[in-house]
Write a structure and sequence with these properties.
Length: 362
């Protein structure tokens, strides 16, 4: 619990003040938590749940306060008594195992700001809430209902998985095929860049510098103090001072450089493609510079190839396609040949890994 005060001791120098309470029987307001254990107007016992912090203007100091701990609350009549009391002054019930009085949550303000009065929302509502919290939670569903729903969900998942993965064997004929081969080409030449000046790439030229914020530094900037008021639970509260260091963020500047550097960079792609019975071939490559490194020179930077076969199921209009990375895998699929493969019954997409030549009977 944040701000939970120490149960047994309070700092010797902490100023102590009276909590306030309102009598809910006769309506008398702003009674003193320590001085008025009973309403001076009607005699009703003070209820710890009715206690609240006063505003700074109305706070009443307690002199020579001796702290014995939070009050004990009588289990029979709910009267709050000093922690020293052994029997309830109202009804005589022993208080040895009595619960301690509840406390208001601590409040915190920056030093110099003043506290406002913080009356409890409604003591009756607070009591109802405390009762509800103490009652054991009733589960909203029985165990059998939960199991039933879980089994139902599992069954639905199973049905969905079956429907999505179910395949049908189909005999298909090759109607077309296609190959694409491409080569990436890089060119050597000036590229613009920007970096911290102490980490420029080798060979950088046309450098220009300017100042820029490299990072922010957290610089100690004194301390900030708060005043916290803490319910002692015996009709009084104390004020404590809590200080912590604060920091301010200061920018740290460094030289930033923009530059040019000669380097290899992607320039273009040359591509060759064909269909049907063409034999796959790489595109003709005409590189400037003939393998040298000079401004404007070019070099090869990676080859890519893709082979596609289009199938038509004999009994349908649609077209299926399978793509291969290597020419060897693609070669056997000659125009008009027949193949067997699995097709998703629900998705209609082919499982290209299942492709096999149709037997003499199929
Ligand atoms: Zn009263
Ligand atoms: Zn009692």
């Amino acid at each position: 619990m944040p701000g939970s005060p120490d149960e047994t001791s309070i700092p010797a120098d902490a100023p102590i003040f009276e909590m306030l309470w309102d009598c809910r029987y006769c309506g008398t307001r702003k009674l003193l938590g320590k001085t008025h254990r009973f309403c001076p107007n009607c005699g009703a016992a003070q209820e710890p749940a009715a206690r609240y912090f006063p505003s700074d203007a109305e706070k009443v100091a307690v002199k020579d306060h001796v702290y014995h701990g939070a009050d004990r609350v009588c289990p029979s009549c709910a009267t709050a008594s000093s922690a020293q009391a052994e029997f309830c002054p109202q009804c005589g019930t022993p208080l040895t195992d009595a619960a301690r009085a509840g406390r208001r949550a601590s409040e915190r303000r920056a030093e110099g700001e003043s506290f406002a009065e913080s009356r409890p929302p409604d003591p009756d509502a607070a009591r109802q809430q405390a009762l509800a919290a103490a009652r054991p939670a009733v589960p909203r569903f029985t165990r059998a209902q939960v199991v039933l729903v879980a089994v139902g969900l599992l069954f639905l998942c199973g049905v969905a998985a079956y429907a999505l993965t179910r395949t049908e064997t189909a005999t298909v004929a090759v109607v077309d095929r296609e190959w694409v081969r491409s080569i990436d080409v890089e060119a050597y030449g000036p590229v613009s860049g920007s970096d911290w000046c102490d980490s420029l790439p080798p060979g950088a030229y046309a450098v220009s510098r300017h100042q820029a914020v490299r990072y922010h530094e957290q610089v100690p900037d004194g301390e900030q103090c708060d005043t916290i008021r803490i319910d002692n639970g015996d009709g009084t509260y104390r004020e404590e001072r809590s200080c912590f260091p604060v920091y301010r963020s200061e920018p740290v500047y460094a030289d930033r450089c923009t530059y040019q550097v000669d380097t290899w960079a992607y320039a273009r792609t040359v591509e060759a493609r064909g269909t049907g019975h063409d034999t796959p071939a790489w595109p003709a490559l005409d590189l400037t510079g003939g393998g040298r490194t000079c401004v404007g020179c070019e070099r090869e930077a990676g080859r890519h190839e893709r082979f596609t076969v289009y199938f038509s199921p004999p009994d349908s209009e649609g077209r299926l396609s399978c793509t291969f990375d290597a020419a060897e895998a693609w070669q056997p699929f000659r125009q008009g040949t027949e193949w067997v493969l699995e097709v998703g019954a629900f998705t209609g997409s082919p499982d290209c890994g299942s492709l096999r030549a149709a037997g003499p009977g199929g």
